[in-house]
Amino acid sequence: MGIDSSWIIPYSDEYEGRVVHRRGNSLKIYDRKEECDDDDNYTRNAESQAATDQKEEQHQRLDISEIDLHTVEGEESVPYVVLVQGPPNVGKSLLIKSLVKFFTKHHLNDVRGPVTVVSGKHRQLQFVECPNDVNGMMDAAKYADLVLLCIDASYGFEMETFEFLNLLQAHGFPDVIGVLSHLDKIKDEGKLLHTKKRLSRQFWNEIYDGAELFYLSCLDNGMYMEDQIHNLATFISVMKINPLSWQTAHPYLLVDQFEDVTSPEREHIDKKCYRNIGMCGYLRGSNLKRGTKVHIAGVGDFPLYGITSLADPCSSRSAAKMRVTDKERLFYAPMSSHGDLLYDKDAEYIDELNDLNEIEGFRAGTYLKLEVRDIPFEMTKNIDPFCPILVGGISLEEENIGYMQARLKRHSWHIKLLKTREPIIVSVGWRRYQTRPIYAQEGGGSRLHRIHYTPKHADCLAMFWGPLAPPGTGFVAVHNLAGNKAAFRISATGFILDFTQAAEIVAKIVKKRKQVGTPLKIFKKTALIKDMFTSDLEIDWFKGVAIQTARGVRGNVKKAAKKELVRKIKNKGDQPTERIASCSFQHEISLSDEVFMRVWKQVGELKDSLDKDDPARRQRTIEQRRAVVFMDMKHRSGNIMPICEEYQFKRRPKEVLFKKEKGKQEIPQCTRRPKGCEVV
Ligand SMILES: Nc1nc2c(ncn2[C@@H]2O[C@H](COP(=O)(O)OP(=O)(O)OP(=O)(O)O)[C@@H](O)[C@H]2O)c(=O)[nH]1
């Protein structure tokens, strides 16, 4: 099957240090122009490269006999989240199935939700397939301990990979291992070696020099070859995994079992009633203290109604207390219908609840069931086992809502500049929500000049209203969440600077304004101007400031006009004689002239009245082509609208996919492969 040519971009020159190249129906991203040329000449160099590559491959193959899977001491019992990420059809599910088969000898039909396996005496691994929608990718970048970045070698790097790397950069960079799949599709030996070399060089350029990269070169009975999986599995079983600072500072759960426990009577009366839910998962990061509020990604902030400590369903130590067969002990994937240990009071394993140390709270590593009440029905209606649920604990400080000052840089692959007050969706901390920032640049002194658009290649300040996040927290901004868009979806990245002095910052932001006045009386080159100032005091402040008429006659403000003179001119004693400025001009002006003065004016409140309005009205104010469907969360989250999983977008017309810059070159908007397409 060929590629639909409508989404293919034409050949483009260097772009962000890379070359995007179209050859026939295939489209690839190269690190450097030479690589692009190299690719054409690969056959000439193939023989000479073959020897070098074979050596590299030999180095890469691990001597597994030297590694003992069960001798790693002192590791925590909480499973590491191994996120398998990659563009559609790259082989993510197949990789998880092959790894699960290697560790447990079980065959997994579908990869739904997290799959936990015991990989050794001291290590459990939880495999999660990263969804391809932006919401799922944003959350995954926050909970991943290790990322297996899958790249289709027969196609090359795709947009999803670059988007995900940007998300990782903003949320802290966990360990990343590259996995090249579909190598068996490249039949020519020379081309295969050349592709391996080119992709590994590109991968190292993106991650770091010498980053681990594994090759999966053929299938055996519909699964990856066992010896190749053995190498990868062995490596992830023993490698040191470093937790991220945001993760260690917060308690969080990746839900591997979800229950709707609303009473059927309540549901019968009102189908759209608020629901009570139970969520199970390993407590990660820091301890969970009583009274901690949690944020359910995409839904909102909720207090915890109940916390129950359960036996670890995938540990050889506690498995005896659960009703599982011996075989299932090393394998736990309730959403994939394996080891479905439904919560049972008799089997409940409670030691840490009544005697819970109030100061310490629930320890990280404990398997918990969290009960949350009054959740909007949309959450249970839209639940998707392929999209894992992230539940993050929030500190008291993060419960508040206010102004934040951030430093932001537009991503140079995003075609448009970001416009002040245009709604964007930010992913910061555990949350993702829509806000309407004001962009500014440092002006003279302590002044901040409001700018209408973000600079093209430089960073700027962004002030926005939202749930507070600690200074230094990274964030990502996107304009829309549509999965079918061809364009690069990350609009900007940045980090929070401060929120404590928000009110002062707001007072400092100024914008350019034109004050307009009209002549009251003209005495040759001097004129009395009305309607430009609000008081005589203001006229005093603006003494000497340049003014101009619409015809271009320049002048400046002199002083407030004398009261007797104004009274005489107006000829009505009771009319106000204030706010009339005496101004001098280069030439005589006429009574029909309009006089302008350019001033800096305080922006005032950042949060405009729209933020307080109901969701329906707010929705109407957003550009029509981006019709975001919000949950009605007004009563719970004040004036912040959380983003739910359910979105509807109108397709952008095809012609907008190409934008000409300076009338010269077309900027590539699409290197995303439509699902199901094959390279010919
Ligand atoms: N020939 C070959 N086929 C592969 C390879 N890896 C995966 N496939 C096939 O590609 C197809 C898609 O694989 P999946 O594992 O479902 O891919 P995925 O990334 O999970 O796809 P999505 O869930 O749609 O994003 C399956 O038919 C696999 O058998 C490979 O290395 N070589």
TrEMBL record:
- PROSITE patterns given for it? G_BMS1 (PS51714)
Molecular function (GO) terms for this protein are:
ATP binding; GTP binding; GTPase activity; U3 snoRNA binding
> Entry's Pfam families?
AARP2CN, RIBIOP_C, Tsr1_G-like
Enumerate the UniProt keywords alphabetically: ATP-binding, GTP-binding, Hydrolase, Nucleotide-binding, Nucleus, Phosphoprotein, Ribosome biogenesis
Residue span, Bms1-type G domain:
78-242
GO term, biological process aspect, one: maturation of SSU-rRNA from tricistronic rRNA transcript (SSU-rRNA, 5.8S rRNA, LSU-rRNA)
Is Hydrolase among the key words of this record? yes
Q: Which reaction does it catalyse?
A: GTP + H2O = GDP + phosphate + H(+)
Q: Give compartment(s).
A: Nucleus, Nucleolus
What is the protein's major site of localization?
nucleus
The record's GO CC annotations read: 90S preribosome; nucleoplasm; small-subunit processome
Look up keyword Transmembrane and say if it applies. Answer: no
Q: Which PANTHER family does the annotation name?
A: RIBOSOME BIOGENESIS PROTEIN, RIBOSOME BIOGENESIS PROTEIN BMS1 HOMOLOG
Family the entry assigns: Belongs to the TRAFAC class translation factor GTPase superfamily. Bms1-like GTPase family. BMS1 subfamily.
Q: What is this protein called?
A: Bms1-type G domain-containing protein
Q: Which organism is it from?
A: Papaver somniferum
